[in-house]
Amino acid sequence: MARHRAPSGDVQDGAETAGPYPLAELERANRVALIAAHEGWCEAYARESYRRWFEMGEPAGSEPNISASIEKAGQKAEPVLRRADSDDAKAELAAATEQAKALGIFGSPSFVVDGELFWGDDRLEDAMRWLKQMESGPPD
User: Fold this and answer.
1) Burial class of residue 34 (count of CB atoms within 10 Å of its CB; 0-12, 13-18, 19+)
2) How far are the Cα atoms of 32, 48, 107, 121, 126 from residue 66, in angstroms, in the given order?
3) Is the N-terminal amide bond of 138 cis, ω within 30° of 0?
4) Most Cβ neighbours (<10 Å): which of 38, 51, 115, 136?
5) 87 or 127, which is more confident
6) Is residue 61 very low, low, confident or very high in pLDDT (cuts 50, 70, 90)?
7) Strand, helix or coil at 116?
């Protein structure tokens, strides 16, 4: 059961701030993120990708953002992009997307704790409290 749904207009307001959404190359950016997550450099890649998007107006997944973000994360862009464009990477993203849908995820950032969905940056603390409560067990 979802604990939070986006108020009407939230997604549109955010899209107007960041630029045209959805992004044309977002799936490619997400395939790179999956590779990065497996290899331990996802945080650096994501931070740089979003920095370039919000501060420089370079949409995530498009050039020069994607190559520069991969390089900033300490990787060589060409082989990573070749892997991201492979059928295996496309299938992995499709599977991850289906898993997210099954969990009820509809936006980012989302946090799932013991089957409970928390959506939005402002819900991180709630998700952490839920996790701590779950770990400590029921009250006496």
Assistant:
1) middle
2) 9, 9, 21, 24, 32
3) no
4) 51
5) 87
6) very high
7) strand
